Amino acid sequence: MTSLPWLDPDQLWFPPANEALDDPDGLLALGGDLSTERLILAYRNGIFPWYSDDQPILWWSPNPRCVLFPNEIHVSRSLRRTLNQQRFQVTADRHFGRIIRLCASTRAEGTWITEEMIASYSELHRMGVAHSIEIWNQRGELAGGMYGLAIGRCFFGESMFSLETNASKVLMVHLAHQLQLWGYRIMDCQVESRHLLTMGARTIPREEFLSILRMSIDQKPDQTDWTFRWRWPGPEE
């Protein structure tokens, strides 16, 4: 069995992502810490943490990688009808703490979002690196949400939840169009799911994903103010 490197919390480094295991797919390293510096370094190199409370910190870079190119967002006929009804409003960075905790608590299969992770990503939010996206119903109640990291022209989606039918899909449409307007190149979805694939996400080889990161991670987006201004054009489109 291939041995994995244990990361020293006092040394800030990662092995190259292409050294990750094939089984389990993408497992790259163990240990280290969740300092903001280490997390930013990880995402810049196509690596993310994913582990449970009873495990050491596990670092991953799966192959292939599930991504969504903002201009490839797919809107089905039924979703178009929902968007035309204008039942939801999308905002950003209104309630990061509430969103990340709901992402943790609303998953029936359990969560990898530990208290340690919540603290670290909340600090990234205070630094302007991590962002929350909220979706509201017509009564002003939270209908769903998502959080992720924005570095350069890359957005790294971390987790999403939905409390009402189609809320997460409407959120994805707004997010993709807004990212496209701001000049973002890619949205990292990490691991594929049926929901993501129906929205236009697809898998690409890890090396292609890393190449996109290298070209985009140091490029400043056209807008750094995370105020959502894109609006669905309506049934006339």
TrEMBL record:
InterPro entries: Acyl_CoA_acyltransferase, Leu/Phe-tRNA_Trfase, Leu/Phe-tRNA_Trfase_C, Leu/Phe-tRNA_Trfase_N. Keywords: Acyltransferase, Cytoplasm, Transferase. GO terms for cellular component: cytoplasm. One of its GO terms (biological process) is protein catabolic process. It catalyses: N-terminal L-lysyl-[protein] + L-leucyl-tRNA(Leu) = N-terminal L-leucyl-L-lysyl-[protein] + tRNA(Leu) + H(+); N-terminal L-arginyl-[protein] + L-leucyl-tRNA(Leu) = N-terminal L-leucyl-L-arginyl-[protein] + tRNA(Leu) + H(+); L-phenylalanyl-tRNA(Phe) + an N-terminal L-alpha-aminoacyl-[protein] = an N-terminal L-phenylalanyl-L-alpha-aminoacyl-[protein] + tRNA(Phe). It is found in: Cytoplasm. Its EC number is 2.3.2.6. The gene is aat. This is Leucyl/phenylalanyl-tRNA--protein transferase. Functions in the N-end rule pathway of protein degradation where it conjugates Leu, Phe and, less efficiently, Met from aminoacyl-tRNAs to the N-termini of proteins containing an N-terminal arginine or lysine. The keyword Ligase does not apply. Belongs to the L/F-transferase family. NCBIfam families: aat. GO terms for molecular function: leucyl-tRNA--protein transferase activity. It comes from the Bacteria.
